[in-house]
Amino acid sequence: MSHNRRVKSPLIIRSDIAVAGWVFMAVWTFGVAMMTWGYVALGGFHQFDPLVEAGVVMLFWVFTLGGAGEMLSKPRSRLTIDRTGAVLLRIWPTRRREDRVPRGVLSGVDIATERDEDSDIYRLELTLPSGEAVVIRQSRLREEIEDLRREILARA
Questions:
Q1: Which of 40, 67, 134, 150 is the most buried (most CB within 10 A)?
Q2: Which residues contact 89 (CB under 8 A, 6 or more apart)?
Q3: Helices 50-72 and 18-42 meet at what angle, rounded to 10?
C-alpha cells in the first residue's frame, strides 16, 4: 500500500531577539559596576559636589536595575507545530516554560504593529487560553510576518 499523502514537516518559528537584550544588559551592568568600583576606589570623581556624584552613581544603578528587569523579563521563544499539535517553549535566563497549544488557539494568531522612529515593527502574536499574548516573531518586513501567519493558519 503506497501513501500519496505528503507528511508535512514540523513548522518551527523561533524568536531569539531577547538574547540581544540580555547581552546588552550584562555588558551595561558590568560597565556600571566598573564605574561604581572606580568611584569608590578613588573616593569620588572630584568633578562635582560629592553628594551630586553619589546621586549620579545611584541614578545609574536605579536605571540599570529597572532596565535589567525589563530586558530579563523577555523570553526567547520557539513555537513548534507538527501533526500532533503545537508546543510553545519560552526560555528566560533563569527559567523555562513549555505549553501545549490547542490547534484552535493557533487560528487566533494575529499581527500587531509597533511604530518605531524609522519604520514599523510587525509582531506575530499568539494569545494563549490564559489570555496572555506571546510574541512569536517580530520583523520590519510585513511580508515575512504575513507569510508565517498564513503558514500557521494552514496548520491550525
A1: 134
A2: 77, 78, 79, 80, 96, 97, 98
A3: 160
Residues in contact with 104: Cβ distance below 8 Å, sequence separation at least 6, in sequence order: 156
* Angstrom distance (rounded) from CA 69 to CA 8: 40
Above 80 in pLDDT, residue 6?
Answer: no
Handedness of CA 33, 34, 36, 37 (dihedral sign): positive
Within 10 angstroms of residue 22's Cβ, the number of other Cβ atoms is 16
40 burial (CB, 10 Å; 0-12 / 13-18 / 19+) is exposed
pLDDT at 1 over 50: no
- Residue 7 grid cell: 507528511
Contacts of residues 36-41 at CB distance under 8 Å and 24 or more positions apart, as own/partner, are: 36/60, 36/61
Mean per-residue pLDDT for 138-154? 95
Rounded distance, CA 125 to CA 47, Å? 49
Q: CA 134, CA 68: separation in Å to the nearest integer?
A: 20
The average confidence (pLDDT) of the chain is 92
Cα–Cα distances in Å, from 59 out to 36, 48, 86?
11, 15, 44
